[in-house]
């Protein structure tokens, strides 16, 4: 499965690390554009100047680790596309240019299913997508989440509840599955 990762799913660290871990494990192929990566970096500014520097470092690592993920939509493609928020048309153009199967986003209102279906695409939300990956690859997804959880605890310098960590990452369904 080829998925365009919208900036809103790259921004939260725990979610991003789980998604990228799943991509590294070969469970799906991530796609993004320069504009999506730039939106993510700019969104971190509200957390302070160091957050943007950290995001740009993470972006450099993603570019290096997934050079095939960078999609360059053809000039003029966006002009024929329509979405409720014109600022999201570039994400749809990236999905079309990258031959994606779906766009992974929390932003359901701005990516109506009928608009995406007209282009042969789906909209997926992270929790359902990761739960589905876990359903087919429980050992791999569990190992990825365990590694992300351990790194979060290392950074925090204290134990963290996995359930709370995943809930903050907007992954309650995945959290419930992992606890079963």
Q: Could you characterize the architecture of this molecule?
A:
By secondary structure, the protein is α/β, with parallel strands linked by helices. It has 2 domains: 2-125, Rossmann fold, CATH 3.40.50; 131-178. Helix content is 57%, strand content 7%. Helix 3 (34-43) packs antiparallel against helix 4, helix 7 packs across helix 8 and helix 7 (126-136) runs parallel beside helix 10. The longest helix is centred in the C-terminal third of the chain and has 19 residues, at 138-156. It is globular. It comes from Cereibacter changlensis.
Low-confidence stretches: none
**Succession of helices and strands:** EHHEHHHEHEHHHH
- Measure the end-to-end span: 26 Å
What's the overall average pLDDT, rounded? Answer: 96
> CATH-wise, what's the superfamily of the largest domain?
5'-nuclease
Helix % is 55-70%
Strand content: 5-15%
Over all CA atoms, what is the radius of gyration? 16 Å
Envelope shape: globular
DSSP, total strands: 4
Question: Any idea what the CATH architecture of the largest domain is?
Answer: 3-Layer(aba) Sandwich
**CATH C-level class of the largest domain:** Alpha Beta
Question: Which class of secondary structure composition applies to the elements?
Answer: alpha/beta
Task: Quickly count the helices.
Answer: 10
The CATH topology label of the largest domain is Rossmann fold
Largest sheet: 4 strands, parallel
């Amino acid at each position: 499965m080829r998925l365009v990762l919208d900036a809103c799913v790259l921004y939260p660290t725990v979610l991003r690390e789980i998604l990228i871990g799943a991509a590294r494990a070969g469970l799906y192929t991530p796609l993004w554009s320069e504009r999506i990566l730039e939106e993510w970096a700019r969104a971190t500014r509200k957390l302070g100047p160091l957050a943007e520097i950290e995001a740009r470092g993470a972006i450099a690592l993603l570019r290096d680790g997934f050079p095939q993920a960078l999609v360059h939509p053809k000039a003029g493609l966006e002009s024929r596309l329509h979405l409720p928020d014109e600022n999201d048309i570039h994400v749809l153009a990236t999905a079309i240019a990258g031959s994606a199967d779906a766009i992974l986003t929390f932003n359901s209102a701005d990516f109506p299913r009928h608009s995406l279906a007209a282009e042969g695409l789906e909209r997926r939300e992270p929790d359902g997508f990761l739960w589905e990956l876990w359903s087919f690859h429980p050992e791999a997804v569990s190992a990825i989440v365990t590694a992300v959880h351990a790194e979060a605890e290392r950074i925090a310098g204290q134990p963290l509840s996995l359930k709370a960590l995943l809930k903050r990452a907007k992954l309650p369904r995945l959290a419930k599955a992992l606890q079963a």
